[in-house]
Amino acid sequence: MDTVPGLDLDHPPFDLLDAPGRARLQASVDIGFHPADTTLIEAGQASPHVYVILKGLVHAYARDVDGVEQRFADYGPGDVFGAWAVLAGRARLRYRTAGECLCFLIPAEVFRALIAGNSRFAAYFNEGLATKGQLSVSGDARRESAELMLTRVDEAQLAPAVHVTGTTSIADAAAQLRDAGVDCLLVDTSGMPEPGIVTRTDLLDAIALQRLPLDAPVGPLANRPLVCVDAHDVLFQALIGMTERRIERVVVRTGDGGIAGTLGIAEVLSHFASHSHLISLRLARARSLDEITAAASGMTGLVRSLAAHGARMPYLMGLVSALNERVMAQVFEHVVPAEYRNRVCLLVMGSEGRREQLLKTDQDNALVLADDLDWPELDAAMDRFSAALATIGYPPCPGRVMVDNPHWRMTARQWQARVAHWRSHYGGEAALDLSIALDARPIAGNAALFAPVKTALMTLGQDEILMHHLAAGALGFGAPLTFFGRMRSDAQGIDLKKGGIFPVVHGLRCLALRHGVAATASIERCEALAALGALPGDLQRDLPQALNVFQRMRLDAQLAALADGRVADNHVDTAGLRRLDRELLRDALHVVKAFREHVRRVFHVPG
After folding, report:
1. Distances in Å between the alpha carbon of 370 and those of 7, 30, 413, 439?
2. Host H or E run for residue 260
């Protein structure tokens, strides 16, 4: 069909309409001319039209918590506004032309009919960022994403759960493995409430390495406790769990606590055409730093492949973090002699500590030492560790937040003294160090050494003065991204980290500390705060999606930069975004603006 001149029905959101909907829109749309400084929609009032700008610029204004009107966003050619004023009968913003403006006018009754008759078109306007995010993945990519990311564990081809008693001999157990066509058995032992698990590898090691006789019982060989996943868990999440724990099979539980079967890497890979398992396998077989480096070299390719198939950002970040953790832990074991590994604890911080790293970024790590540790070669070992990570592709941290820096390498008592110092020093380097430490999590060595340090950190949330100064950091950067259309940007584009990611990450970090939430991942912090009633309803829903939008757009820009031979950074060129992506970005940045105001009110930070 012929489109209305200038009104593009083949791009979002009008491409979401069915053919009858497009025909109805085409037959009813009108064009209106509006002089400069014309108020098209007044805040609090209904609108007789939904507007699509053909030419010109419209400013939207909102009132802040003090009732002062401020410019909220800009709308340019191709942008749609006024939908809320039609659907809810009351506009949230005031819309005023910045100069002469030419707009397409969609009658309110026609727009409401299009919403009623087209569910996907309705979702675009009625739902939050979550729905729009799904709409931004279209056609085959959306179907691939659904298949890849929404498959449940019970949809996989599970291996049957074969039980034996603890008195079963190694020879009989091996025969049962062969007859049942499985590679593990569940071992029921008298006096044990739960079975253990013994694998084909366990039996082989018992015979070849421990020199046990074939008639020895398998009970002592069983591994406990069972590592389990729920039958309704997402299959991709099971893959992340196996990668983190360095295992290749888990037990699948039913809703009533029963055992449905076992799930292994082979079954998972039947659904996922990625090479994540190959990276894990190469890491498991690596015996030198060169072999670890070779295994880790496939990480960027893995990220590129999963991103191209529409992988959801939380799952993608979880898998990458699990693989990064394995790389770093293996390097750590390579440079730290076995006799010292229980006397030290390796921490990761920053995006790796929050499990939000996608591409290899700066090293952010630290060390907790046993108070009585005597290791003369500590300095040299940590120098080798940092150098090895740099060789693998994790560049040194410009701020020297690394284990080869004594400032980030302390005994447990020294760490607790540092925390006490942070309680009385609110700004400068102390505030930055505290923010970094709040995202710390242990990945190698003796995690128990970090426990008292974590406890000390969590007590800081009750210090109102400290929290006031710490939260001010979330408001330190301006928010040029809240203006869309004619957004302010430099030659590099817009810095998504400063304008979007950091205010959310740091704001959630502060709120989590205040409310005693120990989680380090931003999404987990958000969920915990929501459960405690510490976030307004809209922010509970939209903050995770806003973060996903920023992460996805930054990743797309970084992968494109790497493909072009450029250095990947945090900037995105908004002029090159699709219209729906620009809408998503604008929505996400509005969420950030609302969240900043929430943080400001909670911690009494002046505007």
Report:
1. 68, 75, 9, 21
2. strand 259-264
- The dihedral through the CA atoms of 346, 351, 354, 358 has a sign that is negative
Q: Residue 539: is its pLDDT beyond 50?
A: yes
DSSP string, 558-607: HHHHHHTTPPP-SEE-GGGS-HHHHHHHHHHHHHHHHHHHHHHHHTT---
CB of 342 closer than 8 Å to CB of 445: yes
Structure tokens at 297: 């070299």
Distances (CA, A) of 439 to 66, 426, 445, 502: 34, 18, 18, 13
Map tokens 């790590």 to a residue. 365
What is the C-alpha separation between 117 and 109, in angstroms, rounded? 12
Euclidean distance between CA atoms 129 and 491, whole angstroms: 28
Q: Are strands 228-230 and 249-253 parallel, antiparallel or unpaired?
A: parallel
DSSP category for residue 314? H
Q: Are 601 and 66 spatial neighbours (Cβ–Cβ below 8 Å)?
A: no
Instruction: Return phi, psi of residue 74, to 5°.
Output: -115, 140
Separation between Cα atoms, residue 509 and residue 434, nearest integer Å: 11
User: DSSP characters for 426-448?
Assistant: -SHHHHHHHHHHTT-EEEEE-GG
| Predicted confidence (pLDDT) per residue in 142-180, tens digit | 444 444 455 788 877 788 899 999 999 999 999 999 888
Q: At what angle do helices 108-117 and 19-28 cross, to 10 degrees?
A: 180
Q: Which amino acid is at 549?
A: V
